[in-house]
Amino acid sequence: MAYPTAVRTHFTAMSASASPLWRVLSTGRRVPAVPARHGPLVVAPFATAVESPTAQDVNPAQILRNVRPKLLIDGDFVDAASGKTFPVLDPRTEDVIAQVAEADAADVDRAVGAARRAFDSGPWRKMSGRQRGRVLSRLADLLEERAEEFARIETLDNGKPLALSRGFDIPFVVSHFRYFAGWADKISGKTLQTNSNTFAYTLHEAVGVAAAIIPWNLPLLMMALKAAPALACGCTVVLKVAEQTPMSALLFGELALEAGVPPGVFNILPGYGPTAGAALVAHPGVDKVSFTGSTEVGREIMRGAADGVKHVSLELGGKSAAIVCPGVDLESVVEEAHDALFMNQGQACAAGSRTFVHESLYDEFVERAVERAQRATVGDPFGDVQLGPLVDSAQLEKVLGYMREGAAQAGAGYLCLVAEYSYLIYRLNGSLIGVATQGAVVRCGGSRIGSKGYYVEPTVFSDVRDEMSIAKEEIFGPVQSIMKWSSVEEVLDRANASPYGLGAGVWTKDLDLANRISRGLRVGTVWVNCYNQFDDAAPFGGYKMSGFGRDMSEYALQNFTEVKAVVTPLQDPAWI
Ligand code: NAI
Ligand code: MG
């Protein structure tokens, strides 16, 4: 290749480290001490080596022993005003592992009242940024000390492999609180060059009471993406956790109090969306709503926030393109495109769920992608596996529905075209196994595994066409759809034809092509020769129906600050 050495080194480094996490998952055992620099998926090693429990050893009551299944309001863990609770399930077994207090409008009112008082007259907003930063640093330290406990809670609650909770979710939360602890005393405005005899400057002030409504796919990390910048800015927070996964945030609430976050500054409401969530969005005491979840609920939230003209930022669904260009090293790219989709059982907003492969590589890529997906181990997430169960029965039904819709029958087959979108699928021995009404071929997977727990097979569709529902809609499951492309203009048009615009990946050895595609895509993040490389310092969020506003990085501060201009006459405008 004719690249300058620096570029070549960069590409080599990126591809060598592009899926450190998955390497851990596929080789099993524990998370190694990977330096953060080129392995952001493994953000920081745990201080002490920990033994993996075998799946049989898992005792939910023991794992949850320190979690108080209540609401956190004004520094106290309390029952819901109604006295109601709701069940939380273990996605491995469908057993109830906890009954948690269920917040509704009355509790929202209490929590927002506490957050309002804490903002208007409490110490948090008025203390120096340096002091707030120290509290947030202490909170990060406390979490790090108990990282293993949190990782197990996350895996029990969500079903994600323990190696992922240990190697990605929890270390990222630690790192994110440290990162924003560092920002807390660096949130400043500007001195302005005015056109009059005035002195003018801006202040970036805390926006007020911030409501955070988060999903279940990365429970503690989603909390961190909202709470860390909000608290750094001096806001007070009311967090509505997802009904499927409330446990880790509740324990984190205890740590926040222990770290010195004053009562009322960080409140937590487990409960359902249409009740607790909607009441929180509409509450007049809330100044800002930060949401991650489905596009459909994002719209509801904009409507709900409209009456109070509240600040809103939304990180919504996606249908991200993973674009494989000619001439790449298939071995590593197949692996990275696999990770891009299958990480977290495909339950990731940025999942690379449209795999666009250049025609020169298509057949070989499909073969290898199928072989890779068939090798992926699925099972108890406390064991040595790459995929655990999906989060709940609703998600299971949704994913199975897409698998059925994508093709009529699962199984290896070859095609006989009978109409434009209708194929007969034959087994390799010649017997008819079904009709693929939309024309994609299930190369592997396509079914639920067992009848207890929300496990599904890693699934690969080839011959996918853009108009099929599996190519257009967010599945949020382990379903890879592989499409063929011929020209760069065409693949850019097709990638951009989605109403979503969250992320994308491009694999190429051609730097000019990488630049052209990166600029051509209407998405919030482009990963070049890698995927899912998240970093505290890099903004994350969407174009189009993937939302607006950015989580993570310096840009996230804008979500939680107002800009105030202060103008005063200058008697002696020395610089004019
Ligand atoms: P959802 O958007 O309904 O839930 C996310 C959060 O919003 C939860 O805390 C929920 O209680 C809350 N919520 C629901 N309705 C609300 C309302 N009317 N007002 C205020 N808050 C409300 O997502 P759900 O039902 O869990 O998953 C459905 C689909 O959404 C998934 O299959 C996936 O396609 C997508 N999704 C996208 C995520 C992302 O990271 N962008 C995360 C989770 C789901
Ligand atoms: Mg929903």
Automatic annotation (TrEMBL):
Domain Aldehyde dehydrogenase: 77-409, 437-566
Example GO molecular function: aldehyde dehydrogenase [NAD(P)+] activity
UniProt entry keywords in alphabetical sequence: NAD, Oxidoreductase
Residues forming the catalytic site: E315
Pfam families (UniProt xref): Aldedh
Record keyword NAD present: yes
Gene3D superfamilies xref list: Aldehyde Dehydrogenase, Chain A, domain 1 (3.40.605.10), Aldehyde Dehydrogenase, Chain A, domain 2 (3.40.309.10)
UniProt protein name: Aldehyde dehydrogenase domain-containing protein
